[in-house]
Structure to design on (106 residues):
């Protein structure tokens, strides 16, 4: 999966840096909001680990690293899916911007 960057939007679609940056940030924020449940899962895992040091000091040695690994995987999955889900809307918006700017103004 190729990342959509502001440089790519500037080269391929002729957007200004501020327009490309705003477009990417807006679409990624929308995708991130749809996937917020993954962030909450990561937060819950981290709170469980933090609370385990206070409430349950006798857990087996492997439990805390396993929970931290789950939190790390949830964070990485959130980041990947945010970039993946925002790819097509960013490209569609950039194409629409290019098509609108190519039309002669009356």
């Amino acid at each position: 999966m190729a990342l959509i960057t502001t440089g790519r939007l500037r080269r391929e679609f002729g957007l200004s840096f501020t327009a490309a940056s705003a477009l990417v940030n807006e679409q990624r924020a929308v995708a991130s909001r749809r996937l917020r449940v993954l962030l909450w899962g990561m937060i819950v895992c981290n709170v469980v680990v933090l609370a385990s040091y206070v409430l349950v000091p006798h857990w087996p040695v492997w439990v805390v690293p396993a929970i931290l690994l789950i939190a790390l995987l949830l964070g990485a999955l959130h980041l990947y899916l945010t970039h993946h889900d925002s790819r097509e809307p960013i490209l569609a918006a950039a194409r629409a911007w290019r098509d609108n700017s190519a039309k002669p103004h009356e």
